[in-house]
């Protein structure tokens, strides 16, 4: 199906945005604000979310299925709006699968642009990364920082309770605040010179207000949504051949592997708007 | 493959024990203690766990895949050691799929035996059910209680943070205790006459000590492991034709849809013993 679609590249198509669940909607939200004329297809693998605790093999397999599905729907460009998928699957997909599947199409992640901004904002050259167990264990942020900013000290902290706190809206109480404080203090205790922190999971921006309450004022806190949006605009300017095949009618479509009503209800909270979704199978 | 295996029913086979993840190991632990001579195959769908928040359709589809896999491995009897799967998939599998797939095989759940004991232990006839969102929404406990004990008052409480607390071992601290206390108090506030509570999720027995600390002494707290074990022994006594095809060499096998090393590490904590697992694909 993909090969067939490669032959119809001339028709313009939406940009695909993939996430394991709802978190990628915080990225999509910024994409819509910054690039309102573009069309987007959001695909959430909610029936198998969260990915953050899963192994490399499983995350790679599930992410590749999603990318192939978005390709089969016509997308020429897919953004992995998920740190875990970007950390554990992007490189293999770009290097091994794309040349075979669809050499003219592109898959981009959220880590590279985030690392660029993280390095540019820190003065002390000591930065912190808050992420899922999967993202932290992959060491993707460490590797990307080492390439771009080899003289920086990067310290990571895995926050495995934060996604459940967000998904169950349990972060504005004593229990939620305990786990937010715990990980911020643990990270800062590992390196007191940190002056910039990145929320390296797309769920975490929802916790931003609570995190700010326990974070010393001088420490910068970065979310990825606007970083990814700026980076995508920049990418399309540098690659007019890709921009040319992106359709621009301000259209949004949502697909989920879960039940439509569950998705519509939860997604509208993340995106702060009503939406209609369609069901899709990935395996 | 299933039809083929139906013809070889004469050979004795292990009992299949299925759970979405690790929680079912608390059931398996009791089965091994009570029925040490039987062989068991444990199958954990860890690559797609947890099921507790998923929709009916997804849980049914995933559970049926697991049952078919255990059948294809020869199991004549499968225990769904998962409340969410028992609540949302068991009835359809028993009524619609079994007659078609394997009329001589059996699939049992954990809810019916739990309800029998729950009703027998309560004097006030006011009982409480602590479970996942999926189990609570399914109302399976309410329906089973209404059949067996129609004059009882059953009150439910969904505890969506408890599975992540167990899986991340974050329950013996201030944050964990906040969420344990929150749901116990919320349930007791709904009905002060409750004298018996059931932990209707296989993860929750791990929280038993912490729950006991915030629960008034006169309230009985029931775990499912030994209930399911007693019920299974009773079932096999009443169905010698099924007991006859259960192999009895004290053998244990573990299969997971996740990475083997991740499973072996986490499962050994639940089962308090070292174990070797094999990878299996379900879709």
TrEMBL record, chains A, B:
Active-site residue list: 82 (proton donor/acceptor), 201 (proton donor/acceptor)
GO molecular function, a single term: glutamate racemase activity
Record keywords, A-Z: Cell shape, Cell wall biogenesis/degradation, Isomerase, Peptidoglycan synthesis
Pathway it works in: Cell wall biogenesis; peptidoglycan biosynthesis
UniProt binding sites for substrate: 19-20, 51-52, 83-84, 202-203
Entry's Gene Ontology BP terms: cell wall organization; peptidoglycan biosynthetic process; regulation of cell shape
Source species, domain of life: Bacteria
Function: Provides the (R)-glutamate required for cell wall biosynthesis.
Official protein name in the record: Glutamate racemase
Organism: Ancylomarina salipaludis
Gene this chain is encoded by: murI
């Amino acid at each position: 199906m993909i090969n067939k679609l490669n032959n119809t590249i001339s028709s313009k198509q939406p940009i695909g945005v993939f996430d394991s669940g709802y978190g990628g909607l915080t990225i999509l939200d910024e994409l819509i604000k910054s690039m309102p004329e573009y069309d987007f297809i959001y695909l959430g693998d909610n029936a198998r979310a969260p990915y953050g605790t899963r192994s490399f093999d499983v995350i790679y397999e599930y992410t590749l299925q999603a990318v192939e599905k978005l390709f089969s729907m016509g997308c020429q460009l897919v953004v992995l709006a998920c740190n875990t998928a970007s950390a554990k699957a992007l490189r293999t997909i770009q290097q091994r699968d794309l040349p075979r599947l669809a050499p003219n199409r592109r898959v981009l992640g959220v880590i590279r642009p985030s690392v660029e901004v993280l390095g540019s904002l820190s003065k002390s050259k000591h930065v912190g990364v808050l992420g899922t167990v999967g993202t932290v264990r992959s060491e993707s942020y460490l590797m990307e920082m080492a390439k771009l900013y080899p003289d920086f000290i990067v310290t990571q902290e895995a926050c495995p309770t934060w996604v459940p706190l967000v998904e169950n809206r349990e972060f504005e109480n004593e229990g939620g605040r305990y786990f937010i404080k715990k990980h911020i203090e643990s990270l800062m205790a590992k390196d007191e010179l940190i002056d910039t922190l990145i929320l390296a999971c797309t769920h975490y921006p929802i916790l931003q207000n609570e995190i700010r309450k326990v974070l010393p004022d001088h420490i910068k806190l970065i979310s990825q949504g606007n970083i990814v949006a700026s980076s995508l605009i920049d990418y399309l300017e540098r690659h007019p051949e890709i921009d040319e095949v992106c359709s621009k009618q301000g259209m949004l479509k949502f697909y989920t592997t879960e039940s439509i009503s569950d998705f519509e209800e939860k997604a509208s909270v993340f995106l702060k708007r009503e939406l209609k979704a369609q069901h899709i199978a990935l395996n």
